[in-house]
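Re-running alpha-glucosidase to confirm reproducibility after the cluster update. Everything else is unchanged from the original entry.
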Amino acid sequence: MRMGIIVLGLIALLGCSSVNGDTEWWQTMSLYQIYPRSWKDSDGDGIGDLQGIESKLEHLVDAGVDAFWISPIYPSPMADFGYDISDFMDIDPIFGTLDDFDNLVATAKSLGLKVVMDFVPNHSSDEHEWFINSMASVDPYTDYYIWKNGTVLENGTITPPNNWVSVFGGSAWTWNNQRQAYYLHQFAEEQPDLNYWNEEVVAAMKEVLVFWLDRGVDGFRVDAIPHLFEDSTFPDEPLTGDTDDPTDYGYVEHDYTKHLQETYDMVQQWREVLDNYTENSDGVPRIMMAEAYANTSMTMKYYDYGAHFPFNFNLISNVDGSSTAAEIKESALDEWLNNVPDNATSNWVIGNHDQSRVASRYSPEQVDAMNMINLLLPGVSVTYYGEEIGMEDQWISWEDTQDPQGCGADEDTYEDYTRDPNRTPMQWDATTSAGFSTSNSTWLPVNSNYLTLNLAAQIDADVSHYKVFQELTTLRKEAVIQEGTVNVQLLNDNVMAFSRELESSSDSIMIVVTNFANHTEMISLEAFENAPDTLVVSIASIDSDLTAGTTVSKSSLEISALAGLVLRASTASGASAVVSSGVITLFMAVLANLRY
Ligand code: GLC
Ligand code: MG
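Result of re-run:
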């Protein structure tokens, strides 16, 4: 009896620090993006694959992430490295087989990791059998894509039906001899846009979702959503006046090819597919994350139409390493936090396969501070592979350029467009090809800095980006991060800080301070009324000259150039030590009771 009471007491004690029972798994997740060509090659062909990913899943557990999203692994001619899909329901032999996929999912589950697939609904490959049949006008595929007669000029030549421009440059229309018509492609010409006005296309793409749900996936990252629907009367887009080059995507506005209301309605339909699946199976939510480069209101609108969350690209699109602390606060943090709907789950993204790496877009010195912002603000954090060790962009020659967005430009301008520099192989260690492949020759060259910048070295080092990352993912699991309020403050021109706090406990406060200047700054944290007079450094960026455990004063604190610090009330870490020693004492008491 007495022991029962003690055990109940123990459970209650531990319960205090546990997180809210109503939270669904995805709302607090740290998500990791794997670019499959570049993560781990198992068969020595210089291209990453599924068995490679499976062999390295322990890394994700070690890094403390909860879920991973894999960029496309479906059969593809690789015109856009997997974003041109020739079969939505299979695996490309470069990456492996469906069996490899099932094994990967099983291993992920056994490690407690959730698996998110990339769903690419806007277009297929021009080698998809749907398109091959559509070119030949074979039903029901005839209208699976957007076909249009050209405009016949007086001299007899045919030109595209209107002035729409492809994201990758050039007309969004390509002439097809077989069909004697133009087809629409908002991306590369090898990526014909599917016709969402056709109910059969809508139904076929829903089947794709169910196919992967049946294989055990936990959700989808949905690619290029704003481009789904186009105006079916095909008007010319208005000119922006920004450039004279009619082949540049910025030549026209995209009023008739992006953000149509029907696109949002389709997202809502996909949500219904996911929710039905959940209801008819185990009740665990399957999630949908929307990739939409859009203004704030168009982005937030995805919450109203069924997305679990639209990616928050503010730290990518609105600011960079040249931004002031005020700009970071206003254009990235406040812009999101002041506009996100009530009760919606926020998210933070600092990199992906389409963007220059954090160390290059900001600076190598800011990697830890940016990871602090990404991982300690409310909601989901999204980490692109390699950012946990601060990988940097690698310059790629014109000859080695692979990305269609780079190849579509010319030798003088490709560097402005190419996404290859941020897609180089994961730097695991200092062996051949950074431990990515046994081959010396990899699909993109390994970054030349891999001998010193690699995961193994950072595991061995006392202080490293990776160790900071691990400390951050550990901290994320605490209630103050999962449930706490957020308060963002500009401390001076160069220093931004935010606190996370639990209303129930005043010593729970945690403050992240980030200096965006190239010099040391003296600041005061008086703006955080609830902070105690002295604080303790809990996590420090690697070049900050401060170490965990150092006591600092609220009224005057020195923060070095580009540093990031996580500060806590001295009682916060002490408190958890007291709790655990209390637990141990109680256990001893239980044991003592049992013995006598
Ligand atoms: C998305 C992807 C990008 C791809 C494009 C076309 O923006 O992130 O990599 O090129 O869609 O599918
Ligand atoms: Mg479209």
